[in-house]
Known about the structure:
metal-binding; two-stranded antiparallel ribbon; dihydroorotase; EC 3.5.2.3; alpha/beta; 32% helix
Amino acid sequence: MSLYLHPSITPEVIVEAKEAGIRGVKSYPAGVTTNSAAGVVDYVQFYPVFSEMEKQGLVLNLHGECPPADDISVMNAEERFLPTLLDLHRRFPNLRIILEHCTTEAAIKAVQSCGPTVAATLTAHHLFLTISDVVGQPLNFCKPVAKLPEDRLALVKAAASGNPKFFLGTDSAPHPLAAKTGGHDHRAPCAAGVFTQPYAVQLVLEAFDIAITKGVLSEDQVTVEILRNFLSIHGREFYGEPESKGTITIEDKSEIVVDLLSNGSESSTVVPFRANEKTLSIRWN
């Protein structure tokens, strides 16, 4: 469980959070994504909080984008945020920081340049998407938006690198179909988020398979160890969580991603990423 970074969060709250089993604090710059209106405008006011988080061993989870401005758009918001990441790491070198859902080659390089207390999550859908897949398709719209083909390539290579700085973070968002398509009158802003959770493991495997087919990765690079590390071990170790005894078995058959999930009401109808596409079948043990 995490807290939302907000002026009400004080060093004293961090101490209480640690005692209550809270693992981290999520930071959203104000206005950059769904439900971020109460997000951060200036990080300086939170320096005492970060110092206490450093002492208590809590993780700072960063949505790494700058708010919109005359010279900042969705295409460069992440890259423009990276100096903030580097500055926070310099000021609080023992604070564990995760740059969540990276989308750019620049972000990958920035995280690589930091010490072992800085890591990054990569989503399953960003291993597939570029900005061309987002334009005109609200179901693929998320924040940060998918970027250029060379950025996607950098993400795939990082995911298969074996570097413990990079691990899966699905950022799966089951927004109702109506919220993804402008609301009931089709005029509201599209909710930012892609729903991948039921198929996240299969999606990562398929992204690697596509990369092998295209010659981006070799079969030798995608080993069982690489998969286990990216899907499970690296993230667990960064958070300091105990080892899981569960296993995943890839079965020798395929299935189709369902076209939608619903409990019967329009407000709960959700369309998964790559709906109606063929996917692998797995079994959780």
